[in-house]
Write a structure and sequence with these properties.
Rossmann fold; 47% helix; activator; 19 helices; transcription regulation; single chain; elongated; 4 domains; Helicase, Ruva Protein, domain 3; phosphoprotein; alpha/beta
Amino acid sequence: MIDANVLVIDDDDDILLSARLFLKQHFNQVVTCKSPKEINVLLSHNEIDIILLDMNYQKGASNGREGLYWLEHILSIDKDYVVILMTAYGNVELAVQAIKKGATDFILKPWENEKLFATLSAASRLRQSNKKVKKLEKIHSSLQKDQARQFEHIVGNSEPIRHLQNTLIKVAPTDANVLILGENGTGKQVFAYELHKHSLRKNHIFMHVDLGSLNENLFESELFGYAKGAFTDAKDDKPGRFELADGGTIFLDEIGNLSQPLQAKLLSVLQNRTVTRLGESKERKINVRLITATNMPLNEMVGKGTFRQDLLFRINTVELLLPGLAQRGEDIILLANHFLQSFSTKYHKSLYKFEPKAEHLLLAYHWPGNVRELQHVIERAVIMADGMEISSGDLQLSPQKFGGNTVIQPEMGLEEMEKLMVQKAIDKHKGNISRAALELGLTRAALYRRIEKFDL
């Protein structure tokens, strides 16, 4: 059985029946139709590899013009389709003309089954070869884009993101300890990994430790390791996360959740650059680059006495403050399209853009969950969408309040949505046009034009 799907187009029922009975023994799928006018529908609903196309459809016609016309039409849809033309009238000149216009081969009716099978087998190999070349071209193009794009995972062109990228370029090659601050869902782990990827330790391990999920009783054993017999279930020696990350980067997420006794133990490790496994007295040297992150206000916690000031000094040689998604408004559609492409591929959908109303709704929503919430919203929309575009209804966003009691609804017109967005930004920044324009991704002049347009 050949892994290919064949479409046969001929106005003769006997030809279609004969082709279907023979070819279905050798190919995955055989689709037949009497009229080439059905080509668009058939190609959009079926994964076709080879098209066997008759050259004449009008009664008494023998010049092959119809076949040449539909050949050009098929190749205009996708130049990689493999088309084999067939006719009851042998004409060398017509065959040459068909090959010049892009046909793969030419076969006479009535055919010999062996000859037909050999022709379609060769066509199938050509189709598979074309697919591989196309795939390689896409991979090559993707690699070129990745090489040209310095930050593979950081998506954004807004001023706050560009500033963070510039800082990352300077900090990444050093061994400076970095503290990443930001609300939940702003991408702290993404930035931590980018720091590692652009560091001199990039060929070594990147160890992510979520301190918020670690039980306090397991903190020492998980981070520093333990010796055999150190406690009831310690049946073997086990290195901790710091040892495993030796030579690489250790990322301690949610560091603000540490209790003060655990803060003291972590500080000792960072100061001495050694760890001691539970149940041992031997100190083991470690060589790691430390990155930490939290959504908690550490400076306020230091003032309240709930976070050690000396530990804060140790971990924040460089501090990165990640903006919330609402502060990088011009990145929202860029990120949404990035997630749309990713999830469309994951779920085998052909979604390629957002309807205008959907884009306006994305821009109007205040995104309390930041980039992570946007990612989840787009994933759900891709799963639920029926067409080729994401509609405002697919987003399933709850109505949100803007300004006083103003509420934005998916049914609103585009201008009404835009007016609310502009009013919201101006109110939020208390009339500061520069800041409002930055949030909306507009120039000051463009924002002034909208203020005048909407009489705000």
